[in-house]
Specification:
- This protein has 10 helices and 7 strands.
- By secondary structure, the chain is α/β, with parallel strands linked by helices.
- Helix 3 links the parallel strand 2 and strand 3.
- It is globular.
- The relative contact order is 0.17.
- Bound molecules: zinc ion.
- The site of zinc ion has 5 residues, from loops.
Length: 264
């Protein structure tokens, strides 16, 4: 995390960022993305602004047969394309390392359900087993001193919930984890209810989390770049969905992304 390198607009801008970004800069950030595009769409503005540097993106359920646009349901073909999209997105940012993937099968492949059903799957002991596998795979991959960024699982998608559970296991083993608001799901619920989800995370981890707003002048550009890169996963109307939540969170007229940081 490199505050001094907010290389977008001189001293005044740097001062603003310093004020709004208060925790001690870690050696780097390992960011967990349940599916290939989640992190890019949820924190693209902050990534663009180099708030997480060096950044190691890690895709969890990167084995998938789902695409809006590819004319195949072959998971090998779809997963290869999704990873290529991931690489293209992050290649633009020199402070981001090439993404890594765990290649866990996503909910439709794993559970034999339609992709729309994935947000309605009830909690199951198998989720905890999957979360343990993921945490075990992640531990040796994480650089010493790197902070872990994980999704809050807003919207209740089973894969996002499992990644949050895995993040909780990492907290238990001494890792510092901060949480981000998943888009587009965060924009589809009531913003006032997000603290309820944070309260659930606090119960799971035994920590207290405080919100940190991350204003960015690059929010819209980051979303457009994401839509261009992740073409197999997206549709036209998604842009508005991805921008509505940051506008809801706006501070002094500036759209924001938001993360939740463990109180010291
Ligand atoms: Zn997702």
């Amino acid at each position: 995390m490199d505050q001094s390198s907010a290389d977008v607009g001189g001293g005044r801008r740097r001062d603003t960022l310093k004020k709004s970004f208060e925790w001690k800069a870690p050696a780097g950030v390992a960011a967990l993305s349940p599916h290939c595009d989640d992190l890019a769409f949820s924190l693209g503005g902050a990534i663009w602004d180099r708030r997480f540097a060096p950044l190691q993106p890690i895709g969890i359920f990167s084995h998938s047969a789902f695409s809006y646009r590819l004319r195949t349901t072959d998971p090998e073909v779809v997963s290869r394309e999704r990873k290529a999209e991931d690489c293209r997105f992050y290649f633009r940012f020199p402070w981001a390392r090439p993404p890594r993937w765990l290649d866990r099968p996503d909910a439709p492949l794993r559970l034999g359900i339609d992709y729309l059903e994935a947000v309605r799957v009830k909690p199951d002991p198998a989720d905890e087993a999957e979360a343990r596998v993921i945490a075990d795979l992640l531990r040796p991959m994480l650089d010493p001193g790197f902070l872990v960024l994980a999704p809050l699982a807003l919207g209740g998608h089973v894969d996002h919930r499992i990644v949050r559970m895995a993040a909780g296991l990492l907290v238990n083993s001494g890792r510092e984890v901060i949480f981000y608001e998943d888009l587009p799901y965060a924009g589809q619920g009531e913003v006032e209810k997000i603290p309820e989800t944070v309260a659930a995370v606090e119960q799971e981890t035994g920590r207290t989390y405080r919100p940190q707003w991350l204003p960015s002048v690059h929010l819209e550009a980051s979303r457009r770049w994401g839509l261009e890169c992740y073409a197999s996963q997206t549709f036209e109307a998604l842009l508005e969905l991805l921008l509505a939540h940051p506008r809801n969170l706006a501070q002094a007229g500036k759209p924001c992304e938001r993360i939740w940081i463990a109180a010291p």
